[in-house]
Amino acid sequence: MNLMQFPQMLVSTHAGWDEIERRRPEMGTMFLRLVLPLSLLPPLMILYASTGVGASVFPDASHENWLLAAMLFFVVEHLSVPLMAGSIREAAIAKGASGNLHDAYMVASISPVPLWLSSLALFFDQPWLVVMFALLALAASGVLVHHGVRRLLRVREDVDATDMAVQVTSLGVLAWLLLLAVGVLPLWLL
């Protein structure tokens, strides 16, 4: 999986997606080469934020609280990828498309990449920039779901792919809010 293909994957159902379909990487390989390394970014950025913007928002949070928040975020993040794969698979079946779990996992592994990368906005120490990048990343993730289900799960009708992308992205927003709550909870309670 070449990260340089992600911009093309946002505008095409073929660029990058064809390679995924042709190579059919194992789910474990996709986890080790894409999900695991990129999903480390948000927890690491949470720890970075503890000395910058996070310290101004949560001034009483100790380093241990920040470490706990980062670890919990990481764990819940990893639970969300297979759950999203399952929801993508079920939505595809409901639309009469391929219910292949492997392909659903590919989409679920690729679609959060913009969200993981958006955590780098914490380097700017500006809350409004962090929110802006997160919202742009959420939109990009929705587009990746749309293109991924069209190509890998063979959803033929654009309206069905859009419907699936909206459903999956809505569930993703709920998962994202849960991730944020899990990340912030240790900072408020401890």
Give structural notes.
It is a single chain. By secondary structure, the protein is mostly helical. 75% of the residues lie in helices and 0% in strands. It has 10 helices and no strands. It has helices at residues 6-9, 17-23, 27-39, 41-49, 53-57, 63-94, 101-110, 113-118, 127-151, 158-189. α4 runs antiparallel to α6 (63-94). The termini are far apart. The model has no long low-confidence stretch (mean pLDDT 89).
Describe the structure concisely for a colleague:
The protein is mainly alpha-helical and 190 residues long. The protein contains 10 helices and no strands.
Q: Topology of this protein?
A:
Layout: H1 6-9, H2 17-23, H3 27-39, H4 41-49, H5 53-57, H6 63-94, H7 101-110, H8 113-118, H9 127-151, H10 158-189
Helix pairs in contact: 3-7, 4-6, 6-7, 6-10, 7-9, 9-10
The largest pleated sheet is described as: none
Query: What shape does the CA trace take?
Result: elongated
Radius of gyration: 17 Å
What's the number of helices? 10
What's the pLDDT, averaged over the residues? Answer: 89
- How much of the sequence is in beta strands? under 5%
Strands, count: 0
Q: CA-to-CA gap between the ends?
A: 40 Å
Order of helices and strands: HHHHHHHHHH
Q: By helix and strand content, what is the structural category?
A: mainly alpha
Helix content: over 70%
Q: Low-confidence spans: pLDDT under 50, at least 5 residues?
A: none
